[in-house]
Amino acid sequence: MRVVVTGAAGMVGRKLTKRLMEDGSVAGRTIAALDLHDVTPFEAMSSPAMHVTVHVGDLAAEGAAAALVAPRPDLVFHLAGVVSGEAEANLELGYRVNLDGTRALFDAIRHAGNAPRVVFTSSIAVYGGPYPDVIPDDFHTVPLTSYGTQKLMSEALLNDYSRRGFFDGIGLRFPTICVRPGKPNKAASGFFSNIIREPLVGLPAVLPVPRDVVHTHASPRSAVGFLIHAAGLDGGQVGPRRNITLPGVGVSVGEQIEALRRVAGQDAVDLIREEPDEAVWALVKNWPTRFEARRAGELGFKAETSFDEIIRAHIEDELSD
Amino acid sequence: MRVVVTGAAGMVGRKLTKRLMEDGSVAGRTIAALDLHDVTPFEAMSSPAMHVTVHVGDLAAEGAAAALVAPRPDLVFHLAGVVSGEAEANLELGYRVNLDGTRALFDAIRHAGNAPRVVFTSSIAVYGGPYPDVIPDDFHTVPLTSYGTQKLMSEALLNDYSRRGFFDGIGLRFPTICVRPGKPNKAASGFFSNIIREPLVGLPAVLPVPRDVVHTHASPRSAVGFLIHAAGLDGGQVGPRRNITLPGVGVSVGEQIEALRRVAGQDAVDLIREEPDEAVWALVKNWPTRFEARRAGELGFKAETSFDEIIRAHIEDELSD
Ligand SMILES: NC(=O)c1ccc[n+]([C@@H]2O[C@H](COP(=O)([O-])OP(=O)(O)OC[C@H]3O[C@@H](n4cnc5c(N)ncnc54)[C@H](O)[C@@H]3O)[C@@H](O)[C@H]2O)c1
Ligand SMILES: NC(=O)c1ccc[n+]([C@@H]2O[C@H](COP(=O)([O-])OP(=O)(O)OC[C@H]3O[C@@H](n4cnc5c(N)ncnc54)[C@H](O)[C@@H]3O)[C@@H](O)[C@H]2O)c1
Fold first, then answer.
1. What are the φ/ψ torsions at residue A237 (nearest 5 degrees)?
2. Which of B6, B86, B94, B177 has the fewest CB atoms within 10 Å, counting from its CB?
3. What are the start and end residues of each CATH 3.40.50.720 domain in chain B?
4. What pLDDT, on the 0 to 100 scale, is given for residue B68?
5. Are A98 and A92 a contacting pair, CB within 8 Å?
């Protein structure tokens, strides 16, 4: 089969690409060709088993999406996007990439006419508070950020285009992916990863919010697992509601720090410095806490069940050999 | 103040225009200038009290929205749109008018920079079934039509742009406006009006769905009332959730027919012929039934309280002289 990945140079995109190359197949079918797209120039590993092509460009630019899907891929992973902090800071960029880029891709797929499976990374940012203790799947979606708005609009389009049979779309409302490897990005959620990743390698980290903030996380490994699982789902089983809230580990920042202590000791914890930041707090206090994620469970999506597991996944995937 | 109305040649637009001219003021302020826009050529009454300008063109066309709001209106009523049946039959037209037209207008207002009140006609089509008996304000929005999807995307944009202070938006989720005067349009909901309007003037009408179908209605007079009321609302009182589900009369088709009998007699009722139509039924059975509309009530929105009142409003407004 032919597979497309947009946002392939991103954190999740790179890990997904690696997994697809290692597995050599997805959704039970051998991958013959892999088309990787991103606006950031990047290099992909080559593979003896499949034909890998790197495409660099702006997905929202005239003709870019059409060229990408002209060979009529069987499966499209749409990960390209601008993160929350950037979408809030730069209104036009956020709408251009997160909404227009998505729409350009969806319309290009519609015109290609072969109705592939499309897996789209949405976000729990489609929700807005006030929240109940545990957020049910059918909680109303009134986002409080431009990023969440753009994801919601994209979800709506995915649902409508799937209903009309232009493709077979699955939108995945990712929880915050933690521990995010590498350097901090512009996501306001960065500190959730920083306070784990930095101390694990002996570096200091800043905690800008109170310890009782509760939030839901899944590892990058789980993120890739979600995408691969979605690729193989039976569309009929998913039904008309194509956007699915995923599971994760709902913990307070205090519990994250306790997990760090158990896994890496007090020395690591001592590297975290509390430095309240009103701007971060203003955003974070509107963020969702815990999810029921019942449909995702029924459909077989799996995440970690403790934050200790999330830290260990990071150590295995990023800090070994 | 300067007021803009888009969709001014439409059913609601014409009635709103008439009311604005008669009142001479809105939201407590005198109307000095009224800019009326539609893609369908139309003529407006002239008014000695205000400067009325007719603009004809496609709101989604490059530059059209910018030209319309260049004089920085204080109040914008955005009614232009393609109805449900047409948006379903013509995908590109629906997205172009209902989404791109709305976005062009909202962006033009953002660029004009004077942050006016914007009143947008959304629809209960943003909801999708299955439904509870009475649909609460915070019921999740998973539309089952392209029209509903376009309205939902527009609502999301309105909410985000209001949050960011580009304008002070109010989205109104209109129930079905009944009795719709004039000729049937392409809305799949046409029969709700046909079975009343036609018999009242001695003409036959077809009922394509079972009599136990329940749906919520408000008169065109109430529709205008909603718009005028929204124009004068205190934005602070509305809060961060800018899209409001409006009240109406939730009745079965059987109850509509009973009301017709009470108001116009058995002869009128005898003109209704039941002729089940699978295509109409397939759409209608996914439509919402009754709404709680609690927030709208708290904010002072008012509709009829019985279907008899709705029929009498039609007779007074359309059949008297
Ligand atoms: N990481 C998280 O916690 C998280 C949570 C919820 C949702 N998501 C979503 O998952 C997806 C992947 O997340 P990530 O953490 O890998 O993000 P990332 O920022 O690491 O990767 C996104 C990629 O998209 C690319 N991109 C940006 N604009 C583009 C354009 N115009 N054309 C083509 N490519 C463009 C970027 O260059 C980047 O490589 C994103 O859509 C993100 O919104 C992530
Ligand atoms: N009537 C109802 O039952 C109902 C219910 C819910 C929501 N609404 C919404 O209320 C609004 C008014 O409804 P209505 O019943 O008066 O509809 P209508 O169809 O009578 O009027 C809509 C007007 O928009 C104009 N229009 C279409 N495309 C345009 C474009 N590209 N540029 C500029 N103008 C354009 C049409 O020419 C028409 O005059 C619409 O947005 C509709 O979706 C109506």
1. -70, -30
2. B86
3. 2-175+218-245
4. 98
5. no
Is B147 designated active site?
yes
Length of chain B: 321
Tell me which CATH code domain A190-215+249-291+304-319 carries. Answer: 3.90.25.10
Label the pairing between strands B29-30 and B25-26: antiparallel
Maximum separation of any 2 CA atoms in chain B, in Å: 57
A125 secondary structure, DSSP code:
G
Give the number of C-alpha atoms closer than 13 A to the C-alpha of residue A225, restricted to the C-beta side: 16
Give me the mean pLDDT over the B126-154 stretch: 96
Residue A118 CA neighbour count, 13 Å, CB half: 34
Q: Which tens digits make up the pLDDT trace of B40-89?
A: 999 998 888 999 999 999 999 999 999 999 999 999 999 999 998 899 99
A164 with B146: Cβ contact below 8 A? yes
In chain B, residues under CATH classification 3.90.25.10 are 190-215+249-291+304-319
Within 13 Å of residue A132, how many CA atoms lie on the same side as its CB? 10
pLDDT at B186 over 70: no
CA of A127 to the centre of ligand 2 (A): 29
Q: What is the mean pLDDT of residues A238-260?
A: 97
Chain B contact present for A239, CB below 8 A: no
How many angstroms separate the alpha carbon of residue A296 from the centre of ligand 1?
A: 22
Contacts of B297 by beta carbon, 8 Å cutoff, 6+ apart: B247
Q: Is A9 in the pocket of ligand 1 (CB under 6 A)?
A: yes
B12 Cβ below 6 A of ligand 2: yes
Mean of pLDDT values over B167-194: 90
Which of A42, A121, A197 for mutating ligand 1's site (highest number of atoms within 8 Å of CB)? A121
Q: In A, residues 47-106, which contact B (CB 8 Å cutoff)?
A: 91
For residue B185, the model assigns a pLDDT of 67
Does ipTM surpass 0.90 in this model? yes
pLDDT of the residue at A227: 99
Q: How many residues does chain A have?
A: 321
Q: Residue A183 has what pLDDT?
A: 79
What is the dihedral sign for C-alpha B233, B237, B241, B246? negative
Fold of the CATH domain A2-175+218-245: Rossmann fold (3.40.50)
